[in-house]
Amino acid sequence: MDANGTEVRTSSLEIKPRAWLDRLGAVLLGLLAGIGLLSLILPTLIVVVESFDTRRFIAFPPAGFSLARYRAVFASDTIVSSAELSFVCAVVVILLDVLLGVPAAISLVRGEFRGKALCTAFLLSPIMLPGIVIGIAILIFFSLLGGSPSIPLMVLSHVVFTLPFVIRLTMARMERTNVMLDEAAENLGANRWQIFRHVLLPQLWSALLAGGGFSFLNSFDNLTISLFTAPVRQRPLPIELFYMTRFDLDPRVAAIAALEFLFALMLVGLASGQLRKGGLMRDL
């Protein structure tokens, strides 16, 4: 009704164009999302299918089915040692991320101090920087101090790049924890370590597992940072793959890529399951 009490009816001609526009927008959004998802999945599926080819060169569609490329991958000492190096470095990176990220997240959520917002932005800023920028910056900085590319330097650079994932996920989980449980444990005589070990840490497991999974993937499969910080004689798997495709496309690359895809798919599934379990999906 208007100010005079007269009933005002909205014209159906005004509603229909809006409804059609909404439907058209939803269709276009779904179409773009489908195209984007297909452009990400289809090349990976092609590589997985092609990895079983019987020929000694990469071509699609495959001429037959064989596991020869996978046997060649595991028979190569160079590839196996590179994978072992990447795995060990990724595990060390996870441990350092957890040891540094959990106290930082607790301080940023529970603590009250001057410059808290600035400190949060500083710790999370590597997410916004390209990996190649971080790699070059760390290389130049340690070169000025007399350092050179080495495994410890590569691990340190991976920690700088992956630490924000653990901090952000732990902060999101910390914001959903119940502070009254800590206070109740303190009233019952528990000290700081006991409160953390028996009350707070069990509530953070989902965030730690998810953050550790993302950190492992970003460290194990990192090329842009490792290319500037890894030593020449000790190549992690991403750099070894880079050299295998530098002058000629080695067919074993398809098998390695397929194995990495399946391994990453399992880790992402585990991480997403932990995020849903901890109720963190809507907080990120």
If you had to describe this structure to a student in words, what would you say it looks like?
This protein has 284 residues and is an all-alpha fold. It has two domains: 50 residues; 215 residues, MetI-like fold (Orthogonal Bundle). Helix content is 72%, strand content 0%. Helix 6 packs across helix 8, helix 7 packs antiparallel against helix 8 and helix 8 packs antiparallel against helix 11.
Keywords:
284 residues, 2 domains, 11 helices
Report the end-to-end length measured between terminal Cα atoms. Answer: 44 Å
**Domains (count):** 2
Order of helices and strands: HHHHHHHHHHH
User: What is the CATH level 1 assignment of the largest domain?
Assistant: Mainly Alpha
Topology record:
Layout: H1 12-50, H2 68-75, H3 77-110, H4 116-124, H5 131-144, H6 151-174, H7 179-187, H8 192-220, H9 226-229, H10 237-244, H11 252-277
Brief sketch in words of this structure:
By secondary structure, the chain is an all-alpha fold.
